[in-house]
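subagent[fold] <- orchestrator: predict structure for attached chain, return tokens only, no commentary.
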Amino acid sequence: MTTPTHPISVDQIQAGFAQSGYICNDDIAMTMFLAYQLEKPVLVEGPPGVGKTELAKATAHYLNYELIRLQCYEGLDEAKALYEWKYGKQLLYTQVLKDKLGDLLKGAHGLAESIDRLHEFGDIFYSEQFLEPRPLLQALQAEQGTVLLIDEIDKADHEFESFLLEMLSDYQISIPEIGTIKARRHPIVFLTSNNTRELSDALKRRCLHLYIPFPDAALERSIIQTRVPGISAELQAQLVGFVQEIRKLDLKKQPAISETIDWARTLLLLHAEALTPELVESTLNVLLKHEEDISNVKDDLRTLFNTLLKR
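subagent[fold] -> orchestrator:
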């Protein structure tokens, strides 16, 4: 897909995302419009499985940008997120320098001049040619537009969150041996969070905030229609209605949109024409991922079907 003409509009975003298979509401489209125009990072929060990561992917596809992803975890540091030194290349350079040491120092008068000559070459060890860029630095150095996805920032430590602040505010990063590296072109940055811990106010101030809840029935039907077009309208309405009822229960893990899509594909594969208690019971493991949840839903299956039939 070609890059939209600047400035893009909210309606263009909704239509373009729909072509990419991502159905978004007005709140998402407006936030994306502002993020593009204001060049602000977006903090996307919400329960697991509502399409936070998919939003970044859809944005990259819509804008024809490269997607660069950093998956966060406890203990993540700048060596994995920003850069590390190419130690093998530095070691090779050291050997070359050692072999040429006599030539380099030839004609030097005294220790001071010899040291000065060595210093001229020593700085090369910590130059950009010896850097191994990781996702954050890759996004800053990119010549073309990029989407940087910092996924599940709530899993990273507070120290790493603080480390990100310079990049999120100024699109630059400081490397002690080199100095400040600024973005050649500002990336579109997404940070996703499943709300497993509270994020700092400093990080939130630097971002636009977007909360994505589980979709209502109408939006979920639209998503199913886009992602599983072969399913009948009647079965589509039944399975979405059933999923919506399940999400009202006290479960360890609510079924995500991706699991609703998988269930729709499963029912299509089985040539189902309508939901029955027996069909639901035999395919419930596609929708739910904990045995305790499956057992609880099976116990309430008749009640759920009665509620569904009354609609």
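orchestrator: received. Logging for downstream: The longest strand covers residues 66-71. The two ends are 41 Å apart (CA to CA).
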